[in-house]
Amino acid sequence: MTDSWNSSNNIELFKKYVGDTYPDLDAALLAKKDEARYIAEYLKLSNNSTVIDLGPGVGFIASYLVDKVKHLHCVDISKSFLDKSEEILGHNPNVSFQLIKHGNPSMFSNIDAIYCVAVFIHFNLYDIAIYLEEMHKALSPNGKVLIDFYDAEYLEPTDPVFQRHKLLYKLDRQAIVTNINFNSKQAVINICEHVGFDVEIKREGKQPILLLTKGTRE
Fold first, then answer.
1. Where do the H-state alpha helices sit in 139-199?
2. What is the pLDDT of residues 58-67, one digit of tens each?
3. What Rg value do the Cα atoms of the chain yield, rounded?
């Protein structure tokens, strides 16, 4: 993976993808490898699993999971990121790439699991509800979803992320669609349950992780 990045001279795209979150590419890959580990564990992925990576970015996590599943759909609203994912992962016969419109992964069905890491952090509650409804439709019975988001209860007004994105919003209100958003954890859980998911909290704190299972009620 590192060689692929270096050989294709993708430093600027790397910076765009991870910002200041990681000091360098090696640190980012190590963190994403750990995320892939708990994603596989929580979603109980196997070589029989058909999986959606919703918002794969440049394919960091997908690169660690592709050998563990039957088929991996990389799905994104960004053509540039999807193209980069395909450049990195396209040689794998069990990976496909689908560009979608915002909030509309409706072409999928009989999906066993969906993971969506560092994507819902950009969503407001309307986005969250819309995506969860579509995910629920796409899943097989008892299918699972793993999401994370920012819990507003942990927001510190001096947080550099909050201050930076507040400025971006002040300069351009349309930036809200790409900004970091902070949501009430209980509100997110309420939406999950209303849509028809059973909810298990896998991590508390500023960026909680929820494991959602498609319930029996519709």
1. 160-171, 185-195
2. 888 999 999 9
3. 17
